[in-house]
Specification:
Blueprint lengths: L19 E7 L4 E2 L4 E4 L1 E8 L2 E8 L15 E5 L3 E2 L6 E12 L11 H9 L3 E4 L5
Parallel strand pairs: 8-9
Antiparallel strand pairs: 1-8, 2-7, 3-6, 4-5, 6-8
Length: about 130
């Protein structure tokens, strides 16, 4: 009997809530794999004039692979495809900004693990779950 249809599973997803996508820009000199955690860094500087301090926040223009575990001062996305950029070259792609993801199909920053990133990512609606590979 001929095989009329084949169902293949996308092992990056681990839940049935809607995935939120957004066009993002990947920074230069990056090798990104589908499922990589991506970071848009936020830096804060405090300018003090007399007894008064002012906090200035600067948000990076591009997403890059983080060097370590997620922190509450940055924004995150999950890479939807493999992409490589070179020196002085950025690239636009689609990033997953929210959803339920299979932590076993992801790469996190530096030597960090899913457990190191779980709470910070959940605060940004990126939920990590262990899924059985089909």
């Amino acid at each position: 009997m001929p095989n009329l249809d084949t169902l293949t599973y996308d092992n990056l997803f681990a839940g049935n809530i809607d995935v939120v996508t957004e066009e993002i820009t990947i920074g230069e000199n990056q090798t990104i794999l589908r499922g990589d955690l991506l970071e848009k860094k936020v830096t804060e500087t405090i300018a003090v004039e007399g007894a008064v301090g002012t906090t200035n926040r600067t948000v990076a223009t591009n997403f890059v692979r983080p060097s370590g575990a997620a922190d509450e001062n940055s924004f995150y996305a999950v890479a939807s495809e493999d992409i490589t950029t070179g020196a002085g070259v950025t690239a636009k792609t689609i990033g997953y900004r929210a959803g339920v993801f299979n932590e076993n199909s992801m790469r996190f920053g530096g030597a960090s693990t899913a457990d190191d990133n779980r709470d910070i990512l959940a605060a940004q609606n990126i939920y990590l779950r262990q899924a059985v590979k089909q």
